Amino acid sequence: MSATVFTIANQKGGVGKTTTAINLGSALANQYINTLIVDMDPQANSTSGLGFSKKEGASIYAPLMGEGNAQEKILPTRNDHLFLIPAEVDLAAVETELIERPNYLLQLKACLDSIMNSFRFDAIIMDCPPSLGIISMNGLAAADYLLIALQCEYLALEGLGQILSVTEQIRESGVNPRLQLGGIIMTMFDVRTRLSEQVVNEVKTHFPDKIFNSVIPRSIRLSEAPSFGKSIFEYEPNSPGAHAYKKLADEVIQRFELDKKNLMLS
Asked: What is the pTM of this model?
């Protein structure tokens, strides 16, 4: 079987999208799920959050432009089952350059096809920029499932309809008919306020079968870990944030029937 491809997207910044990409990917890898994180954000926060520096030519930019092979960009991390395709500033040019190419929404899928079908990975997680531009649209066009990181604030709910509408358009237009909403991950839950609980309950009311039970807390440790180039499991493995992402990974494994099918091939 080919890898299950997840795109983590939200047009709003600061919602815990990159934190989720890093720590969900790490939590899956900790359970021997061979996982690849593809950093598609020119800010390269997933890249630095895993301890890598921005390096010219290291990203998927050149393969997207038809130069080179995406497999050559894969880097091992300190976790034997976690890998990364890093980002760099040049990815920002994709927004203007890719639109000039035929089938521009399918360029990332074409670029990653050999990796998706290589039997090397069980899961591929794409971390997209905080926008619904060309990069994010390519991420949705290449994915099996959209995972939405949603901050536990009412303002965050306003953009939920927009990204769901875009997802439906991509599916119904035939660009990616297999794309589904995989789930909504509630992030930055503040136990001190009733607002966080109210927002979670509202999402549960509208998307009872899509919201994950695991809620990610607002946490200083989760915020600090990327500055040390570490996942929460390396930085503070016994913290509430680590426990929350471990539970989320358990849900993801069960919901999408991920297994260790590629363990012998790693």
From this structure: 0.95
